[in-house]
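User: Glycogen synthase, Mesorhizobium liriopis:
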Amino acid sequence: MLFVTSEIADFVKAGGLGEVSAALPRALRQTHDIRVLIPGYRQVTSGRVVHPVASIPAFAGLPACEIGRIDMADGLVVYVVLAPELYERDGTPYLDENGEDWKDNDIRFARLGLAAAEIASGVGDLDWKPELLHVNDWPSALAPGYLAWRGETMPTLITVHNLAYQGLFERSRLSALGIPDHAFRMDGVEFHGQLSFLKTGLFYATHVTTVSKTYAHEITTAEHGCGLEGLLQTRAREHRLTGIVNGIDDSWDPKRDPLLAGRFDENDAKARRANTVESRDLFKLAISRGPLFAIISRLVHQKGIDLVLETAEDIVAQGGQIAVTGTGEGRFESALTELAERHPGQVGVRVGFDEAEARTLYAGSDFLLMPSRFEPCGLSQMYAQRYGSLPVAYRTGGLVDTIQDGETGFLFSELSKNGLMDGVRRAFDSFGSKKKLAEMRRKAMKRPPNWLQSARRYGGIYQKLMAKQQAMTA
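Assistant: Predicted structure for Glycogen synthase:
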């Protein structure tokens, strides 16, 4: 199998996709020959030995490229699309140093998708050919289309990590990307007069997965379907849409984590408290007998940061403390910083992200505030549970699938200040009962799934798709 992604945490990570791309292929390697394909960003190629193993010709407006190979220490094979003019730049995989979309993102990620399709077709003399193509989100979503337009019948699977990001470009870009004119229709790549990379993948892929069962249902509704609900309803009726909850990798183990101030298990509350002390020190919070609420998140509207700001005064008034770490929209960064200035010792904000600080805060906080407006899967709530911090979350997406309300966290149903405060009040009540809190914490620490469970479900889909393909060609 060829697993195609625009980011992988080993080298470069902009969000949850990077973590999934690092963990899921490794879990799948136990039963499948799965290899990863990623663009050759500077973060990938700098200071590493990348062995060129194949050449891919230019096509339409897409430049020629080489395919390099990196063999990871654990045996995972990572193929790299080597096109320095497209990928070796400062900034993130998607944005320049000013936070703006790269103006040639259509070329950059069409090159990734076409390279994947050509590897699948045997172009380039790679000396290896996959039996199935697994692409992720819009940056690699053209690959199933390129295969279809060339008459290839290899089974393909696309995983939607966030339907809101669709990769929309002008119709005039079809020629440069090598997309045939006949594909620009409703039953094809067209989306409200534009070219949609994501819709291309959803339409041409053999099967669609999302990162939780609830999100798989939500995206078939007008509220969460982002205009693609009709196509996704069709895929659901055809039994070609499946929700599979993400896992968390084995490094999230409070008994072994070297980044923690104190290591612990579900029965060792005393050792866990060392992380609470360290968290308060890091965020300049006063010694307190009240609960510590954490926010470890991108500071953006989707994550419900505005609701946190509306409820913060009430949390502090009731004796709670708040610690925030993350980056995002300037308005939220400023508002949170001002909140901390109004409540010194009770609210601490560190704009930025540091892995050790985040892990310490997961392990040191009592509750994680996660009022996301939508959350395809979410990893933060699983990290928090694994480290004994109970999530307070809106009832949506993967949060529904991973939080047992009243047992491993708290779910609220009204997306408003009152809704969030209802969850917060329940958290305060549980904090007032040491027995109840300890029982919930123990359940939460045992709750999050590991990647092997997810890998088994993906592997089952792989086998069905390949068996169907073999039956068609027999």
